[in-house]
Design brief:
binds cobalt (II) ion, Naphthalene 1,2-dioxygenase Alpha Subunit, Chain A, domain 1, 32% strand, globular, 348 residues, six-stranded antiparallel beta sheet, seven-stranded antiparallel beta sheet, alpha+beta, binds FE2/S2 (inorganic) cluster, iron-sulfur, Rieske Iron-sulfur Protein
């Protein structure tokens, strides 16, 4: 599935960047192949416009903010937060300003991030109740650009068969390649998946999970939020919860912005934020290395025929089915890469 070719994907909220980043002036971002610019309006709320001036097409992100408006850096034309052209500095004061605008997009601030929806959203931003629960702390773990498809990251995080191999140097046990089974319940937003996984407990993991046993049983209650957010809720026998919330924000086909937040019901004195970042950095680097080696076009329909599967791929297969249903509900067909069509023809 080429994400830039499926308009229905524009109807979801995506985490774009930390709100603090906008204190440095207008910031560019590309969402689903669409260049946008984010900036703070007069009330300090985030605004998002197409990153293109209607005069000579310069990127508005090259400009600066003035009284909550954005000023084009080329000739100074000025737009308000809704994209309306409000000032042409070359015109005499009494001359009316043409009715022109830059396209504006919906924004929200949630969990310390600015979220953008390019078209009317089909559902709200995924709820994370722990964010407002005083028993939990929020840690901003990662904000990195990866060369892979959003669906690859999503299915990888529900794939119990990769731990023993990809994570053999962290928590995986290469001698235990048989994956544990997931109990999956489909929901309106995607699905919930529950499992018990036994993982290796190297010395640092003992601090993370609050146990000194060589192995720990993780109780995982995970959620997939269509299309590209996931929540991994790990509970250790110590009662420590390690809840990772991840967005694979699609920049373009085969390119994602990985946003990772962590919620923990312990304190900085138990395990510092930096230790938690370092621990998960080693794990996510293992995932990244292998995911960037996969075909960036994670196909949802023909992928069922081209790629081979095993029972533990069920969460990923369900994602493909639900995404395909979503396309069909909105009168879209999957737009595949030409080479996939060719390899399928060659197989038949
Ligand atoms: Fe923006 Fe001229 S290109 S003001
Ligand atoms: Co992994």
């Amino acid at each position: 599935m080429l994400v830039t070719k499926q308009p229905v994907l524009r109807r979801f909220w995506y985490a774009i960047m930390r709100i603090e980043q906008l204190d440095n002036g207008p910031q560019p971002f590309t969402l689903l192949g669409e260049p946008i610019v984010l900036f703070l309006d007069a009330k300090g709320e985030p605004a998002a416009l197409e990153d293109r001036c209607c005069h000579r097409t310069a990127k508005l992100s090259k400009g600066w903010c003035r009284n909550g408006n954005i000023v084009c850096g080329y000739h100074g034309w000025e737009y308000d937060r809704d994209g309306k052209l409000v000032m042409i500095p070359q015109f005499p004061f009494e001359q009316p300003i043409p009715d022109a605008r830059a396209r504006a997009f919906r924004t929200k601030t949630r969990y310390g991030y600015v979220w953008v929806a390019l078209d009317e959203p089909l559902r709200d931003i995924p709820d994370i109740p722990e964010d407002s629960d005083p028993a939990y702390r929020r840690i901003f773990q990662f904000y990195d650009t990866w060369n892979t498809a959003a669906l690859r990251l999503m299915e990888n995080s529900f794939d119990n068969a990769h731990f023993a191999f990809v994570h053999k140097n962290t928590f995986g046990d290469i001698d235990q390649p048989r994956p544990e089974k997931y109990e999956i319940v489909e929901t309106d937003y995607g699905f919930e998946a529950e499992t018990l996984v036994t993982v290796k407990n190297p010395p640092m993991a003992a601090k993370i999970s609050g146990t000194t046993e060589p192995y720990t049983k993780r109780h995982m209650r995970n959620k997939w939020f269509m299309p590209f957010c996931r929540r991994l809720d790990m509970e250790y026998p110590s009662g420590i919860r390690h809840i990772i919330f991840n967005c694979a924000t699609p920049i373009a086909d085969g390119k994602i912005q990985v946003v990772q937040l962590l919620f923990r019901n312990d304190t900085e004195a138990d395990c510092s934020a930096q230790e938690l970042i370092d621990w998960d950095a080693a794990i996510i680097a293992e995932d990244r290395d292998i995911l960037e080696s996969t075909d960036p076009d994670a196909i949802v329909d023909m992928g069922r025929k081209i790629e081979k599967h095993m029972p533990s791929d069920r969460p990923g297969m369900l994602m493909r089915k639900r995404l395909l249903d979503l396309l069909h509900e909105h009168d879209e067909e999957e737009v595949p890469k030409m080479q996939d069509t060719m390899s399928l023809t060659a197989q038949n």
